[in-house]
Design goal:
Layout (H helix, E strand, L loop, with lengths): L1 E10 L5 E11 L4 E5 L6 H8 L7 E6 L9 H11 E5 L10 H5 L1 H5 L4 H15 L14 H13 L5 E5 L7 H17 L3 E5 L3 H4 L4 E6 L2 E7 L4 H15 L12
Parallel strand pairs: 3-7, 3-8, 5-6, 6-7
Antiparallel strand pairs: 1-2, 1-4, 8-9
Helix pairs in contact: 5-6, 6-7
Length: 254
């Protein structure tokens, strides 16, 4: 599904900054993979390369065997819209639109028929438990509800790869748990291949495995196994070895 091969990213300027060095990552269809590391470790840079927002200086990124950087601008926009789904910390909803209008936005851009859009919106709303709020405006929603809407928008076109960037960053512990359980359910029931970038050990513990990066380089990898509580503890232990400032990682939640 996803192959990152020897990817490096260097930013030129008054001082040249190497954000990533020779990163290799492979994600199979249906996997749920987390990426963790201290602030400045290169997590967001890696996500941006996979999201086709940025381009590697060296190395390649392949999604379903295709190199999206070989596409022209219009082809790339279509590829991103149809192949990738995005969930952000700040929700990125349009406040002038209703919940339903936000959810169907990717289909609107693809010129789908209204009836088809409404059927798909209602189906994903039922899965995510947001049918009662479909006609509300986004400013009427709680943080947890807003993130559910953002997930619905990301999933409505059934993307091949869902990219979640700190999806629990602005949520309290209960809403965080709800959102992560929802992402896990989509991963298991819809076979939604998911890449999660997070500082939150509790959120990370929902993944099948975690890739740790430090100073732009691969540091280690751990697998969940059978016991999520034991996996959570392994994440905590790895983070303590990884180092970084105390504020780099979310406080441990019950």
């Amino acid at each position: 599904m996803l192959q990152v091969k020897q990817a490096s990213k260097t930013y030129e300027g008054k001082v040249t900054y190497r954000a990533l060095t020779n990163i290799n990552l492979e994600i199979n269809k249906g996997e749920f993979v987390g990426v963790m590391g201290p602030s400045g470790s290169g997590k967001t840079t890696l996500l941006n390369l996979i999201a086709t927002i940025d381009q590697p200086t060296t190395g390649t990124v392949l999604i379903e065997g295709k190199n999206p950087y070989q596409l022209n601008r219009n082809q790339l926009a279509k590829f991103r819209r149809r192949t990738l789904g995005f969930v952000f910390q700040d929700f990125n909803l349009l406040h002038t639109l209703t919940v339903k209008e936000n959810i169907v936005l990717p289909l609107t851009l693809d010129g789908k028929r209204v009836k088809e859009m409404e059927e798909k919106a209602e189906a994903i709303a039922q899965v995510l438990g947001i049918s009662p709020i479909m006609n509300k405006r986004t400013y009427e929603l709680s943080g947890g509800q807003a993130q559910r809407v953002a997930i619905a928008r990301a999933m409505i076109h059934r993307p091949k790869l869902l990219l979640a960037d700190e999806p629990t960053g602005n949520l309290d512990s209960k809403a965080s748990k709800d959102v992560m359980e929802m992402l896990l359910r989509l991963n298991q029931q819809e076979q939604a291949t998911t890449l999660l970038v997070t500082h939150d050990p509790q959120a990370a513990s929902y993944a099948d495995r975690i890739i740790f990066i430090r100073d732009g380089q691969f540091y280690s990898e751990i697998q969940q196994g059978e016991n999520r509580k034991a996996f959570f503890q392994k994440i905590i232990d790895t983070l303590s070895f990884l180092g970084g400032d105390d504020h780099d990682f979310s406080s441990i939640r019950d």
